[in-house]
Amino acid sequence: MYAKAGVPVGKPTEFVEGLAEPANDGKPPAVPLGMPIRLLRHSKLDFAAWDACINSAPQVVPYAASWWLRATAGQWDALVETDEHTGRYRAVWPLPVKRRPGGREVYQPPFTQQLGIIGAGNDIRVWLEEYAACRAYSRFYTQLSTDNGLPPARPPMAVHLRQTYHLSLAGPYETIRAGYCADYRRRLRLSETDTQPPVLSAVSDAEPLLALFRQTQGPAAGLKKRHYARLRRLVAALQARQLLELHEVRATPGGPLLAGALFVRYRSRLIYLFAAASVEGKKAAAPLLLVDAAIRRHAGTPGLVLDFEGGMIPSIARFFANFGAVPVPYAALSFTQQRPWYLQWMR
């Protein structure tokens, strides 16, 4: 689920070394850093080769698809490992960038939980030790994928330990439900015997859900108008590819919206991307009904995993764990270059 992007959460561990010195102007070099891995600016990327790499990679990371990054980031550079004979991208490391007075920054876009190295060359340690061009940027923050593992830690880059929660949907629904906590099972039984239970339905319009989030959680999450615009672009891109499942719970047909959720179905992942609930919805256990319904729809699918896309906040982690989901660690990397004296007042 969505958490404010670009803000390291959790205590930094140690550090990672082996990074190239920054260019004098603070911009990424346009020349190859070494063959066959190169740092490419956005304008030099081959997007057909990019998406072919993402779609066939052993790692399942929809956030790295060009259409996803186009919606949430707009611009990104990348470290790319290329097959010298065919030009095929063997592996990529997306580096979303934005300009700031202190130079170009690598950041984690909103609604983009993980990036990191995707493709055949997945050893993050090799990429950092031999081809780490991230020192070409004034600031650097990126979240790796769960498949990249936890890199060794040395200066000048901090490694932040993060976690998401996964639940296998390969088994039958009854077996998965038996793994819910006792309170969740009790609430579901009450809902199933209620003469007027809340109404759960699939819809295509995400605007009521976005409005509910703005009313209930938006200010605390730090979302601004531009973030909602990015989410709308992402919803449109997902719907165009038939990858989005949008469900909502109302007290009665056409009644007040109690809760809603966006799920993304991509290859072997079902991602709990975005959700909101009113105070009344929480009392009616509407978030529980939404997640349980998604599990019921997809249970029995070989290899399918529900990624709850979060778990850094203890109360949210408990909500996920109560479905029987287990924590899965991944790393975030960050550093900040020393700013010029005339920019050091900025925070």
TrEMBL record:
- Is-annotated flag, keyword Ribosomal protein? no
Q: Name one GO molecular function term.
A: transferase activity
One Pfam family recorded for the sequence: Acetyltransf_6
Give all residue intervals belonging to the BioF2-like acetyltransferase domain. 183-308
Matching entries from InterPro entries are given as: Acyl_CoA_acyltransferase, BioF2-like_GNAT_dom
Query: Which SUPFAM superfamilies does its entry note?
Result: Acyl-CoA N-acyltransferases (Nat)
Keywords for the protein's UniProt record, in alphabetical order: Transferase
This chain belongs to which protein, by name? GNAT family N-acetyltransferase
The protein's organism comes out as Hymenobacter metallilatus
